[in-house]
Sequence to fold (723 residues):
Amino acid sequence: MVHHPSEPPRGAGTALRGELAGRRVLVIGLGEAGTDGARRWLEGVESAISSGPDLEAAAASSGPALAAALFAAAHRSSRSRPSDGAGEPAADPPGRKLAPGPLEEPSLVVSVGDAVRRAVPTAARATISARAPLRAGLTEAQVGGPFGRALGAHADALVLLGRAAEASVIRILGTGAVEVQGAPADQAALGASARARRLCSASPRVHAIVTGPGAQAGLPFANLSSFDGGDAEAAPSVVGRGGLGAVLAGAGVMALTVEEAPVDAADPRAVAAPSLDRGPAVPDTLTPRRGDGLEAALVRSPRLLSRAAGGTLELAASRGSDLAVDGPRRKHGCAGCPTPCGWTFQVDRRGGSRVGGRFSALQGFAERGEPLELLERCNHLGVDARSVAGLMSRFPSAPVDEFFSGLLDPASEVHIAAQEGAQFPGAGATFARGDLAAEVGQALAVRGPEPLRSLSILGLDGERARGMIAPLPWSGDRERDAGTLAFWHECVAAAVDVSGFCSFSAAGLLADGVMGVSELGESLGIEPEGGSSSAAVLLRSGARHLALHRELLGAEAAIPGDLLERHPAAVEAYLAARDGQVDGGLVGGDLSCGKDRGPAADGAPVEAPVRPRAVTGPLTVVARGLLGARLAGHPGVVRGEAAGTAGDEVRVELAAPATGWTAVELLAELAAGCPSAAPWLLDPGGRPLPAVLEVESGATAQAPIRRHGPGAAVELVLAIPGG
Fold:
């Protein structure tokens, strides 16, 4: 149903409200699109979606699935209506209404999932969907912060059509009214954070997504930043995937703001944000208990607790990085999240700017100067840090000030190189080392490699994998199982993103055995239906979403030749799992056994096996952070070096046999000597969690055939989601 605007148009565009598959859609016709264009588009999309069962199901799922359905409806309309022979759409035959003629694809869609609207803990993500300059197909990116929850009170999706004639700001007021106005001329000279502060200064309930000067300069890797108007001390939440900032600027929009709707204090959606000053509470036991709520489950994940304590920065240190990240900092995280993962660092530039620290964003700057300052420069211009770091490697002798000023100068060699649109070194690097499933997934994933970056932490193999991914097959063949696992994880990641829940939190819950897929689905409000478990419904949602992405990608969805040559069985298994879901493999199966229910699942302590053996010499284990604090009670701790608090280094000496231990045996040996650390090393069934062992030279050692004997120095680091 399409609604007429409730008030006269203002500025450079007009907003119309409609309903598609029970979801509220707010369409803004920019420039020439105007009111009539937006109305015709809404009517055409409504007809297209109602005539396509897969589109209707996707739209009803809301979030980025709704956005993908809008793009797919426009895509199909261009080839669905017959011509009258003169190049015009044919007229409707008597008594029957044909599908509409070609529809314009949206310029950009911002959507929110059901978990965001229901204020599920750590579900506070808005998804931005568009055709981006550096990616084929439809590009998606999730941006955290209060913008998504504020938008969810007004609409399930905000759709931009056309292009504004001048740089504009779109405002959604608390009443639901929409204003589209030209951006003040003085804002064009401001950096992204200064633009946001000016736009949000009227009320702490106003939140913004803004572009920076890099987007207006036409840089293809321009990104978007989300700002919390109610927290002047917080850093922006930055999305850099594919050049979405360039897309918004190309639509003539400098910024989007949304004001929180008035909320009755009794409204269950009104959830107070947690205090983040003290960090997460660490329970005495991390063993999951039946009936735990989602918040309780989140603080039973060693990975999420370690990540909240700064684990990704410890990971940087463990790999020999020279990153200087010790400046003044504070915690921040998504609303309702008990394991906040964000850090805000104060930088002595432009009056004390603040940036968010992430190992992946900072690592490329280690050789070019102070990493936090360089990241702040990227945030000021609104450009992707990884792409900038890669581009800087092409100009090793250019002074930093000259390089950044050159980015905005059309005559500069730096700007010309940036306009080439190539994938710069490091911009698309793999997130996992030596993990075949992660390699296959990141090469073939239809949404790009980023949603698969948590795959390598799952460490699935053997019977645990067989139960987790059923009914997809687990054969015991490394190559084939890697391909199957890659598609399974792709479905899980897509479904979690559709809901709006944090994908890194989901990965931690699954990796640590705190929840299975069915339990995760139920926590996100997904109910069993038609004889299928919650897990089956969750994965079906992900598979349906991926199918729309493949349709929008079209002929460009090619399989890399080198991957096919090196791992043909893995590629074959991935394709078999992907295509089998159409015939009922994923859709018809019962995926309820995502977590084994062993004796330890009721809260009893995990008892690790003791392995008596003849010993010949010491082996040293090093651990930091919360994992180190847990191991501080081990009888083999080297005294004087084990303060046992988060961030300190703990050294443990073990008497190792001459034949050495495998990685699996070493973790079991540590757990046997220190039961309080066992839940951080072993899952509830007594199987080792997928920790990362880095031995002397720093090479990753996850394969059980590698042995660590007397004299070895082993560093133990939790494989942290997003690290």
